[in-house]
Specification:
CATH topology of the largest domain: Aminopeptidase
CATH class of the largest domain: Alpha Beta
Bound molecules: zinc ion
Order of helices and strands: HEEEEHEHHHHEEHEHEHEEEEEEE
CATH architecture of the largest domain: 3-Layer(aba) Sandwich
Strand content: 15-25%
CATH superfamily of the largest domain: Zn peptidases
Distance between the termini: 47 Å
Helix content: 10-25%
Number of strands: 16
Shape: globular
Strand order of the largest sheet: 1-2-3-5-4-6-9-7-8-10-16-15-12
Structural class: alpha/beta
Length: 365
């Protein structure tokens, strides 16, 4: 295997395993650049952050993010495979691509997060200003200042995404696909959260692109959020999604046949292979909007259904969903379904979302 390596691949990358490299240096890695024999420029900007620029590239600037939640391993493994194939020159890129492994310390620990849920601290919610970040505080300094790794990482990832998009002239197609798996099973195995677009039309091209690999259920958000995908859409005008691709399992325990279509789509997207997708028709999709968010108000909060309930499960009106101190939450409307229930969130945070079907007629483009 080693003899096949281009001479330009630096020693630190060993057998082109960028995931192993990332897990070995989980907190930070100084910027390192090299060029493959096929001319592809490789810039490691930090641990888990690698930017590829092929000699000639098309009009798409694509960010592929995984591991923002450390224990959601299938997308991490998919991206690690793509990075390895690029480094070994088995995969010739046709577009600029930025790969991000979000939370390496949590990936090492096999947990969703060490201290903070990263998807609650984008769009500046980390409250770390550029001056502090410019000083590149060490983990110890950050900790002394009360900053978790996750908040620091959110601020840094924002900088890397900005650097990636702004390194080329404006007006190109930007995408930011933040790949996840969910804590629980789902009535619809694969689904995507489409961040709030502030009234702009939803993209038929993007909806049908993802439907071509089995993601035809979309949750269309109606309010700003602190997620990575909302940050990409709002701050950089990228086509951005939080993609939930199946159930979270530990490294090495994923059934990759269940992710094969998605992995192939990503491979085709970045290597210029024509992707055939159908013309947009609303009936080909399951489209939902958030009807209400239920927040945990006290430690007494409890969910009133089986722990292994699937996302998008529907209940009859009147069914009790959850109890909090002095409050009972019941289903108010036919068709209401629940998503992302989690009683273990911090006080004041979202414990679940209730969603209902929506039509997008006349609001797509
Ligand atoms: Zn996640």
């Amino acid at each position: 295997m080693l003899s096949a390596l281009p001479t330009a691949l630096p020693q630190v990358l060993g057998d082109a395993d960028f995931l192993a490299f990332t897990l070995k240096h989980p907190h930070f890695y100084p910027a390192t650049s090299f060029v493959l024999q096929n001319g592809t420029k490789c810039d490691i900007w930090d641990t888990g952050v690698i930017c590829f620029t092929p000699v000639s590239y098309g009009n798409n600037d694509i960010v592929l993010s995984s591991g923002v939640h450390g224990n959601e391993t299938a997308p991490i493994e998919i991206c690690a495979e793509l990075v390895k194939d690029i480094l070994l020159q088995k995969l010739q890129l046709s577009e600029r691509v930025l790969f991000l492994f979000g939370n390496p310390p949590a990936m090492n620990a096999g947990v969703r997060e060490i201290k903070d849920n990263m998807n609650r601290f984008f769009s500046g919610a980390h409250q770390i200003d550029a001056a502090v970040l410019a000083e590149a505080p060490s983990e110890q300094q950050a900790e002394a200042a009360g900053l978790s790794f996750e908040k620091l990482r959110c601020a840094r990832l924002e900088q890397y995404v900005s650097r990636f998009y702004q390194a080329v002239p404006e007006g190109r197609n930007r995408a930011l696909y933040d790949l996840h798996t969910a804590i629980r099973g789902s009535k619809f195995e694969k689904f995507a959260v489409y961040p709030y677009l502030h009234g702009k039309p939803w993209s038929e091209q993007q909806l049908t692109l993802w439907a071509s690999c089995g993601v035809n259920t979309f949750l269309l958000m109606q309010t700003p959020a602190t997620t990575f995908s909302y940050y990409g859409a709002q701050q950089h005008n990228a086509h951005a999604f939080t993609l939930e691709l199946g159930k979270a399992r530990p490294f090495g325990q994923n059934d990759h046949s269940r992710f094969a279509d998605v992995a192939l789509l990503l491979r085709n997207l970045i290597s210029g292979v024509q992707i055939s997708s159908k013309t947009f028709a609303e009936q080909d999709f399951h489209l939902f909007e958030v009807y209400r968010a239920i927040n945990k108000k006290t430690e007494a909060f409890e969910l009133c259904f089986a722990a292994d309930i699937e996302n998008f499960t529907q209940f009859a009106p009147g069914t009790v969903l959850a109890r909090d101190e002095g409050i009972e939450y019941v289903v108010e409307q036919p068709g209401e379904a629940l998503i992302f229930p989690n009683a273990k969130v911090a006080i004041g945070q979202r414990a679940m979302l209730m969603v209902k079907p929506i039509s997008v007629a006349g609001r797509t483009a």
